[in-house]
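Take a record.
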Amino acid sequence: MIFDIIEDMKITRRNLLKITGFAVVATAALPRMAFAARNSLKSLRTGIQPGNKTRLVIETSSRPSYSLSYPTNQLVVNLANTGANSSISSKLADGGLVQSIAQAQNGDSLQIIATLRKPIAQIPKSSVMVLDPNGDNDYRLVLDFVAGANTPSNQSEYTTASATTTTAITATRKYIIVVDPGHGGKDPGCLGKNGTKEKDIVLSVAKKLKNKLDLSGFKTYLTRSGDKYLKLGDRAAIAEKHKADLFISLHVNANPSRKMKGFSIYTLSEKASDEEAKKLAEAENAADKIGVEGFTEFEENIRIALSSLQQHAVAEMSEEYATGAARAFKNKSITQQPGPDVRHAPFAVLRSTVPGALLELGHLSNAAEEKLLKTSAHQDKLVNAIVKSGKNYNFEVSNFFHNFAQSKKQNRKAIEATNIINEFKYLTK
């Protein structure tokens, strides 16, 4: 019973972060078995049936929960708790009513949008089938339809019990990314052999990155747009103020070995992954000590008390982004510092309710890389890699949160959800 309730409320490890933004759960993260599995799209295809019928087949990894809607010259199939799959291509039969098929993520649901050559009649319940796995096929949602006038009727007749009805395609909001050029003002960051300042390199890259992200469909904010000093906590606060979906802090590294070069990527962790990561975090965190008397550890002044469940979710999503970012950098043939793709350390600037990562773009301590980092061509290369990492990141949890927070009714659901979670944890002690 409890599993059914959790699944109906679409509670997953990813969206639990946002749910607990309303009701704090001060307990350890749930075991993975407690969360509902997410459906995935496997294939899309059409065929021709007797009686001038066109057949649309939507194959999914688990039994689909669906609803139908009929915008002008379109058929929209809304699949609950399903993610998009950009790796598949639609197989369309010649002579059918379907001209093209597109996918659109709408919160936690996936919309399959079939553009039609002519209007179709509403699909009766008798012409919709859900087939169980058979041979090489997974679950299949099968719809047969014909050309004709679309007559409005009770839409619930054509939907499964748990599905919701849509009458039009809902536009996905712009995702918000806050880019943080590290250091600034009285804090120059590290210095190159030839006098290059870290604060200048990262600001130049950040401005280019903002322009490129905005052109790519994101809404982007900079923590600083000029040579300004900001405390680390203030940088994280800016991300929270803008209700950011992702926080990217830009830095340039330095190493006692002049031969060391390449990028590295870090996420927040209470324990550093290695000694080098520990020393780097100590150096970056020391930025708050500049010109400040009676400095205390950042951990003693955390502005927001996060539940352990939130911390777990933030860490998981940050790791997901960082892993994808490392892959994007390598795909752009950008040199990587020897070691793991993603490192971890207690960076104060990353202490936030917003998933994020700290990107070290290279080493100013390496003379050749110092020269490279100053060139516009290499900065553009870095920007393109970061933009790619943003495009590949799964923003679904943030979209869920923004949709979830629209009403008090939904807010009450969040409280109910936490009660269910606590009940489950009690039962599994």
